[in-house]
Design brief:
222 residues, alpha/beta, six-stranded parallel beta sheet, 20% strand, globular, binds pyrazine-2-carboxylic acid, binds zinc ion
């Protein structure tokens, strides 16, 4: 038992490190309103990652029913179409992650008791919010950046859904705020409205200084 404890301790990340779980919610999983293909494959991987981290933060897409990113709120439009929303280019989505609905909740297979905080985003109906830090206009701030700094976090590992939207935007904001940012490529999946979107997101992230790795390589980053 002591030996086991020792091994578990050995694979703990340093205390300046956090795991950021982006929008791991029912509506982004198979069967959900905005299902990400193979999104469920990341669940056992995340479950395996969690014990290595003492600081785990989840983000939660949390829209009012009248949110401007929903095609249903713009008569005559379809999901996937692009519009201008308050001067910003906006892709229209199916109704998803409405506050208080089961689709906005987290799967019970994830041990939420080990999460230090949940940051909700997308509450302002006039602007979408892909990133866990700022809205797409970069005006609204969820407080996640200040929270991480207060906790002494300097390095973040990012996982979740979807790679080409909320994961990319969250990781890009993290690196822009000065956090060493690493993407766990096996613990994310892309929507791929266009077939290459996921691949393009990876390239953009690498160009911004985000390091990409697989979970199996985490022991090299303790
Ligand atoms: C997301 C589209 C709309 C995401 C959220 O979590 O990637 N994508 N809202
Ligand atoms: Zn959303």
């Amino acid at each position: 038992w002591l030996l086991l404890q020792k091994i578990v301790k050995m694979i703990k990340m340093r205390s300046d490190t956090a795991l950021l779980l982006v929008d791991v919610q029912h509506d982004f999983l198979p069967g959900g309103a905005l299902a990400v293909p193979q999104g469920d494959e990341i669940l056992p991987i995340i479950a395996g990652l969690q014990p290595m981290f003492d600081c785990i933060i989840a983000t939660q897409d949390w829209h009012p029913a009248h949110h401007g990113s929903f095609a249903a709120n713009h008569p005559g439009t379809q999901p996937g179409q692009q519009i201008q929303l308050e001067g910003l280019s906006q892709i229209l989505w199916p109704i998803h992650c409405v506050q208080g609905t089961p689709g906005a909740d987290f799967p019970t297979t994830l041990d939420r008791s080990r999460w230090n905080a949940i940051f909700q985003k997308g509450k302002n109906p006039l602007v979408d919010s892909y990133s866990g830090f700022f809205d797409n206009a970069r005006r609204g701030d969820t407080g996640l950046g200040d929270y991480l700094k207060q906790q002494g976090i300097r390095r973040v590992f990012v996982a979740g859904l979807a790679l080409d939207y909320c994961v990319k935007f969250t990781a890009m904001d993290a690196v822009s705020l000065g956090f060493e940012t690493l993407l766990l490529t096996d613990a994310t999946r892309a929507v791929n409205l266009q077939p290459e979107d996921g691949q393009r997101a990876l390239e953009e992230m690498k160009a911004a200084g985000i390091h990409c790795l697989e979970s199996k390589d985490l022991p090299h980053y303790v």
